[in-house]
């Protein structure tokens, strides 16, 4: 939904300098495979470079590791609660950043929160266009994200998304897909990250962004090379065109055979005295094949 070029927008330090907060966050994120990680690393280019040891990605929560002998954690409130860090003093700041549609993260050192950083990515202009087109075709749009509810709702309001599930883990996303399918819905899941892979595999149609993580691409059945959601609209229209074309081709094939075989056998002779040469029947059969091929080639002119 976004341009895929997130940037570090806010660094709020408490008990440490801004450069130190950026340096520690970047040390952890160098080992992560996520667009937000790259944004943090790039945003900390002017800060001292450090290396992390024992890097661990805590799915749906954040990352942890050791930097200069200290245990560092960068992530959401769930991660802070997991490591026993007190973060109530910074929660209002985080909520304010999230209400602006930013992804805000706590940074803790040895169990104490020393800063908050925020990353934001602009919504693509084509995303609203794609969602409007999908709504016009009668589809219901559901967003499942690991971001906070405040961040998710800010994006959902702007885009007109029908239903939002925030703060969900990869397993929760897959469970949501299964729940929708059990309810009788046909589910197409679009995603670009490692966290989306289980849901992509569970959906009727998994749609990966070509600009996303390799594991997401491997889990999907369809890849949008440009990572543009309007590609979903075009892919759906193409699929509908192909199915319509298949039905037409089946009609052509059966119509020629249903009419041609009895006529070639002489069914008209007793009534009309007409008897076609087998050559005519062979030509009709050939014309059937030509009609099917010609009709299939019309897909090249299909307006997507």
Describe this structure in words.
The chain is α/β, with parallel strands linked by helices and 304 residues long. It folds into three domains: 7-120, Calcium-transporting ATPase, cytoplasmic domain N (3-Layer(aba) Sandwich); 125-233, Rossmann fold; 236-301. 48% of the residues lie in helices and 20% in strands. It has helices at 18-29, 35-43, 77-83, 88-99, 125-136, 149-159, 170-182, 197-202, 214-219, 230-264, 269-272, 278-297; strands at 7-13, 52-58, 62-67, 70-75, 103-109, 112-120, 142-144, 163-165, 188-191, 205-209, 222-224. The strands form three sheets. Strands 1-6-5-4-3-2 form a six-stranded antiparallel beta sheet, sandwiched between helices. A three-stranded parallel beta sheet has the order 9-10-11. α5 crosses α10 (230-264). It starts with 6 loop residues before the first strand and ends in a 7-residue tail after the last helix.
